[in-house]
Specification:
With about 375 residues, this protein is of the alpha/beta class. It folds into 3 domains: about 70 residues, no CATH class; about 45 residues; about 210 residues, TIM Barrel (Alpha-Beta Barrel), CATH 3.20.20.140. The protein has a 7-stranded parallel beta sheet. Helix 1 crosses helix 2, helix 7 packs parallel to helix 8 and helix 12 crosses helix 13. The longest helix is centred in the N-terminal third of the chain and has 31 residues. It is globular and about 75 Å long. The relative contact order is 0.09.
Length: about 375
């Protein structure tokens, strides 16, 4: 027989679920009806709705609402900074901003009038003692954080990343995101993996049978110890001219997209004559997390369709100049794909088209990659 406490607990649980459901209704309405109408400058905002849904489901109405509000407040105006996973453990201020020295603030405090009375002198003495303790504590924390940061020459998160998609290990460790199939990734030595960034996935050209065994291998890899080296999922996608049967390609592609979403990974997408189908799949799955369309060669009008759908574009050596010039600065991403020797030429040509120096373009691309993959970069 149920006790009074059991009955009350059931009632509270039901009310909690009902409140979560009511809070989710406007979020779903926004994602399905309002988000598709927003201009490209607002395309990140749906990530906040995805975050809100997961936060409410994971932490309940009150905590979830707080986390969602806090996430939105951290966004840049008119858009966020990429997919930011909901924390497993609730904390009011789980997002820790980098510490900065309080020099200017402390100087203002110390510039106050000198206390005139003995009582004020005592207060002043106590104030400066507290300030001294605060400074010592802050100094210790800064030294501790500095000591924990690895050497910039070998740590991938501190090395400028100028190639968002390649199939070859870069000359400079950590300067590119290397896309491999699971088998090729596992065949690398520890020395080859050390310090490098990877994307791992099943290419539509390489699907075997129905792809189920490869999907299982990929899932195992992404849930194992090696997952810490993997910052993106791919290369996956659809190809109307080559590879497995269209229905098998579609099934394997959707499975990888769902896998990427559950792990907070940005998928690298191969698109050959499949743009409308890829956009349709994204809409049908109600996905707002970012996707990267690699090797984009299309016209500005096609680029606009992808941007409106919430995707990002990476340009290779055969890019369309008009498309490059039409992209907002924060959307410019470059890749070498299967021709790493051409990366320098690519930067020189793109920089000339944009009226920039190659070095400033490298800095811009590095910044854009880090923004796209913020939750994978500890020191972005």
């Amino acid at each position: 027989m149920k006790t009074l406490s059991d009955i009350l607990r059931s009632i509270v649980g039901a009310l909690r679920q009902a409140l979560v459901f009511l809070l989710l209704l406007p979020v779903h309405f926004y994602r399905r009806c309002i988000s598709p109408l927003t201009p490209p400058s607002c395309r990140y905002t749906p990530t906040c709705s995805q975050y809100a849904i997961e936060a409410l489901r994971k932490h309940g109405p009150l905590k979830g609402l707080w986390l969602a509000t806090y996430r939105i407040l951290r966004c840049a105006p008119w858009g966020g900074w990429g997919y930011d996973p909901v924390p497993e453990k609730f904390s009011f201020f789980y997002y820790k901003k980098p510490r900065f020295e309080k020099g200017a603030e402390i100087m203002k405090k110390e510039a106050r009038d000198i206390p005139s009375s003995s009582r004020d002198m005592k207060k002043g003495k106590n104030f400066f003692e507290k300030e001294k303790k605060f400074l010592e504590k802050e100094k210790n924390l800064l030294e501790k954080e500095k000591s924990q940061q690895p050497d910039a020459s070998i740590h991938p998160l501190l090395t400028p990343v100028c190639d968002v998609h390649t199939h070859s290990l870069p000359e400079k460790t950590g300067s590119a995101i290397v896309s491999l199939c699971p088998q090729d990734f596992l065949s690398l030595t520890e020395e080859e993996k050390e310090g490098n960034l990877f994307a791992v996935g099943i290419h539509p050209w390489n699907i075997e049978n129905d792809g189920s065994e490869q999907l299982m291998q990929l899932k195992t890899l992404l849930s194992g110890d090696e997952a810490k080296r993997i910052v993106m999922l791919g290369e996956t996608g659809l190809d109307k001219t080559r590879g497995a049967q269209p229905d098998i390609q579609r099934s394997v592609f959707i499975s990888q997209i769902e896998m990427a979403l559950s792990l907070g990974l940005v998928p690298v997408i191969h698109d050959v004559r499949s743009m409308q189908e890829i956009i349709q799949i994204r809409k049908s799955l109600h996905i707002s997390a970012p996707w990267l369309i690699h090797g984009f060669r299309g016209k500005p009008e096609q680029a606009e369709q992808y941007l409106r759908a919430g995707c990002h574009l990476s340009l290779g050596v055969h890019y369309n100049k008009e498309t490059l010039l039409s992209l907002p600065a924060e959307e410019i991403l470059l890749e070498s794909d299967d021709n790493p020797e051409a990366l320098t030429t690519l930067y020189e040509q793109a920089a000339a088209d944009l009226g920039k120096s190659a070095e400033s373009l490298r800095q811009l691309v590095d910044s854009n990659i880090r923004r796209l993959l913020q939750n994978k970069f500890a020191f972005s």
